[in-house]
Amino acid sequence: MKANRVVALCIALFAFAGAVHAQGVAWESLTPGQRQVLAPYAERWKDLEPGRQDQIARGAQRWLEMNRSDRGQARDRFDLWRNMNDAQRAAARQRYQQFRALPPAERQRLVKTYRQFRQLTPEQRRDLRERFRDLTPEERATLRQRRLDQGPGIPRQPFPQRAPQRAPQRER
Hints:
Helix content is 69%, strand content 0%. With 172 residues, the chain is mainly alpha-helical.
């Protein structure tokens, strides 16, 4: 009997949550800060889909909670996104979905590696890219597989060094 009440209560709560979501977010229910951030949407707010209103309202709240540095980075990412064509956006979405599908430990490892890469000087990054670009497709595949096989938390072997290319010798 008690289990039936709990189930009924859960169903009622889910139905209420769905109804609230279907109604969207009233402009008047936004905080003054959110309304200021979303001022460009004021005239057409009521015409937006409820899910879009909720998404934009949450984004405005996140914006308000950011410090100056975070806002600058968000602006840069938004500008980058805005300048992408449809194919680039689709590729970015696909990479993001692939990233989200990874196990948490693997995602953490990738984020850590990316942060380490970003801390390199521009020259070091360029050198690393050139070294990777100079690898044969087989060497690239081997390197990727080796990194995957090592798993998270295991120290990485150094990036393979290639022998310097010598200029052809002239005959005397």
